[in-house]
């Protein structure tokens, strides 16, 4: 299969899916195709997979002057490697140079890692060709839409509950089917919040009760008694956490209606919780302190990571931690060096992370995606009315705008 035309076409499609480009195979009688693909002997080395060359005057390319050459001596037994190499070389043929962003396909070194298309690759192709039109596709229009969440389980925990959900102001919960329809999951006027991760979807009622739906089941199980002490819930990894008015946080024990209180290192209440794939719990306290604790969160397990009154929000994607400061900057914690790195200078009012993706919403309502280079973000929506942005671990992005319309990012 490797080296087949089908794989070459699929590799071209990876770029044409996200950019307004049409690429068709030229018949062999064509005198001058734009891009030639050829196989040439370069020796049986694992260092040279392929290369792309072109003749350009620095301003324009003429057709017929781009060659993608694969090493014919290399044993192309692995379709995934051939496809990956082709996607990288086609990136060059379409005008992209190498990236400094290590997880990007346009990173110059293969290092044995077959990478998915990265925001940096997307920002690159968009900067050359622009976007498909329309760039967003509307998937719902209802003034009662109140919010959207995405359940996107970590690999190994992929669940039938994975997907996009919306909560309406009527209390109804609906799930989006990729075919374009919405299915009602529950319809209870008391529901005021939903959250979910891995195998579970949760809803919180006005009376403080919390209910759990398990993947593969159709009945909701009550997991918390009525209480006026509950502020909100947040699900992450295989856990669900609760913030309480008395300033404490708690997590569900996993059975009955029992929650376990997690003592905090200092007195102020919690402003926001976020947890990593390995269930490390991050807690932004009301005074701006950021503390973290590893499962199962003993009272002496908290570590104060940052003390800064200007911290106003936190986000966790995979194992990576981000914080938003009141000056609109987004700061990432480089945990290999325990170093804070500003990845956005200002303008942000909300940060959202999922898997390896990070999104920022600006005060003007625009939505941005981080490319992996500090300071470099791609604008995804400039219509200036986004109120919620969510994504999945494969790079899918959805937004709800003021007025309740929900959109899916196409390009
Ligand atoms: C592309 O390959 C052809 C031979 O297959 C060669 O004649 C041509 O010079 C090459 N073009 C570039 C830009 O290297
Ligand atoms: C080809 O590689 C790209 C980038 O890794 C990936 O997104 C795509 O799914 C692959 N396609 C096939 C047919 O393997
Ligand atoms: Zn290259």
Automatic annotation (TrEMBL):
<keyword id="KW-0482">Metalloprotease</keyword>
<feature type="binding site">
    <location>
        <position position="106"/>
    </location>
    <ligand>
        <name>Zn(2+) 2</name>
    </ligand>
</feature>
<feature type="binding site">
    <location>
        <position position="98"/>
    </location>
    <ligand>
        <name>Zn(2+) 2</name>
    </ligand>
</feature>
<dbReference type="InterPro" id="IPR006026">
    <property type="entry name" value="Peptidase_Metallo"/>
</dbReference>
<keyword id="KW-0378">Hydrolase</keyword>
<dbReference type="GO" id="GO:0006508">
    <property type="term" value="P:proteolysis"/>
</dbReference>
<keyword id="KW-0479">Metal-binding</keyword>
<dbReference type="GO" id="GO:0004222">
    <property type="term" value="F:metalloendopeptidase activity"/>
</dbReference>
<feature type="signal peptide">
    <location>
        <begin position="1"/>
        <end position="18"/>
    </location>
</feature>
<protein>
    <submittedName>
        <fullName>Zincin</fullName>
    </submittedName>
</protein>
<dbReference type="InterPro" id="IPR024079">
    <property type="entry name" value="MetalloPept_cat_dom_sf"/>
</dbReference>
<feature type="active site">
    <location>
        <position position="89"/>
    </location>
</feature>
<dbReference type="Pfam" id="PF00413">
    <property type="entry name" value="Peptidase_M10"/>
</dbReference>
<dbReference type="GO" id="GO:0008270">
    <property type="term" value="F:zinc ion binding"/>
</dbReference>
<dbReference type="GO" id="GO:0031012">
    <property type="term" value="C:extracellular matrix"/>
</dbReference>
<feature type="domain" description="Peptidase metallopeptidase">
    <location>
        <begin position="1"/>
        <end position="131"/>
    </location>
</feature>
<dbReference type="GO" id="GO:0030198">
    <property type="term" value="P:extracellular matrix organization"/>
</dbReference>
<keyword id="KW-0732">Signal</keyword>
<dbReference type="InterPro" id="IPR001818">
    <property type="entry name" value="Pept_M10_metallopeptidase"/>
</dbReference>
<feature type="binding site">
    <location>
        <position position="34"/>
    </location>
    <ligand>
        <name>Ca(2+) 2</name>
    </ligand>
</feature>
<feature type="binding site">
    <location>
        <position position="72"/>
    </location>
    <ligand>
        <name>Ca(2+) 1</name>
    </ligand>
</feature>
<dbReference type="InterPro" id="IPR021190">
    <property type="entry name" value="Pept_M10A"/>
</dbReference>
<keyword id="KW-0862">Zinc</keyword>
<keyword id="KW-0106">Calcium</keyword>
<feature type="binding site">
    <location>
        <position position="88"/>
    </location>
    <ligand>
        <name>Zn(2+) 2</name>
    </ligand>
</feature>
<feature type="binding site">
    <location>
        <position position="47"/>
    </location>
    <ligand>
        <name>Zn(2+) 1</name>
    </ligand>
</feature>
<dbReference type="GO" id="GO:0030574">
    <property type="term" value="P:collagen catabolic process"/>
</dbReference>
<feature type="binding site">
    <location>
        <position position="92"/>
    </location>
    <ligand>
        <name>Zn(2+) 2</name>
    </ligand>
</feature>
<keyword id="KW-0645">Protease</keyword>
